[in-house]
């Protein structure tokens, strides 16, 4: 009887070990993968020419500049900023004085009303939203722009009241920066 008991215990042990080797009726594993994150923005036009404007004159661009999300995998949020020209300094409120200008930007199929608090550019990168550099329309703003999507960007400039410098064409660089949206 003792021998039979040893054989049964041994048999149970062997069956248990074999059961562990084959696993249960379910099992799982972890799959790991990373999405390629290329954040890319492209401004189709490289220059917008306002031409010659009088001191203190305000002008809205006659056509939009096209900004594209050229990412292959991500929707994007955009930021805007400008740099001062060689002879002029930006202002974001009030009436530009001597050698000062105000440049505003607005995404949309056509520009809506212009409000300096929402549309005036500065030298600090500022996030876009439905109202900030937007016209109130979510599908037209610089927020959550889908991959391969594009937006139309309009500009409004108010010229210096006068200039104490030799009048020369000024270049005002505008930068659009993309981040994951």
Describe this structure in words.
The protein has helices at 2-22, 116-119, and strands spanning 41-43, 58-60, 65-69, 76-82, 89-90, 100-107, 126-127, 150-158, 174-180. The chain is an alpha+beta fold and 181 residues long. The chain has one domain (41-164, 171-180). The strands form 2 sheets. Strands 1, 2, 3, 5, 6 and 8 form a 6-stranded mixed sheet that branches. A 3-stranded antiparallel sheet has the order 7-4-9, with no helix packed on it. The radius of gyration is 31 Å and the shape is elongated. It starts with a helix and ends with a strand. The mean pLDDT is 88.
Distinct helical segment count = 2
User: How would a crystallographer describe the biggest sheet?
Assistant: 6 strands, mixed
Distance between the termini: 75 Å
Total beta-strand segments: 9
Briefly characterize the structure.
The protein is α+β, with helices and mostly antiparallel strands and 181 residues long. The chain has helices at residues 2-22, 116-119, and strands at 41-43, 58-60, 65-69, 76-82, 89-90, 100-107, 126-127, 150-158, 174-180.
């Amino acid at each position: 009887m003792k021998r039979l008991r040893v054989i049964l215990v041994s048999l149970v042990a062997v069956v248990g070990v074999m059961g562990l080797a084959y696993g249960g009726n379910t099992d799982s594993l972890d799959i790991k993968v990373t999405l390629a994150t290329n954040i890319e923005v492209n401004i189709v036009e490289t220059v917008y020419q306002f031409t010659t404007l009088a001191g203190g004159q305000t002008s809205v661009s006659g056509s939009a500049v096209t900004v594209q999300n050229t990412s292959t995998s991500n929707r994007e949020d955009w930021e805007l900023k400008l740099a001062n020209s060689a002879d002029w300094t930006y202002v974001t409120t009030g009436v530009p004085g001597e050698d000062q200008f105000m440049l505003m930007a607005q995404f949309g199929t056509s520009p809506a009303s212009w409000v300096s608090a929402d549309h005036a550019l500065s030298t600090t990168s500022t996030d876009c939203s439905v109202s900030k550099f937007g016209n109130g329309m979510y599908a037209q703003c610089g927020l959550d722009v889908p991959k391969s999507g594009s937006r139309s960007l309009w500009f409004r400039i108010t010229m210096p009241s006068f200039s104490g410098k030799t009048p020369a064409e000024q270049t005002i660089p505008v930068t659009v920066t993309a981040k994951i949206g």
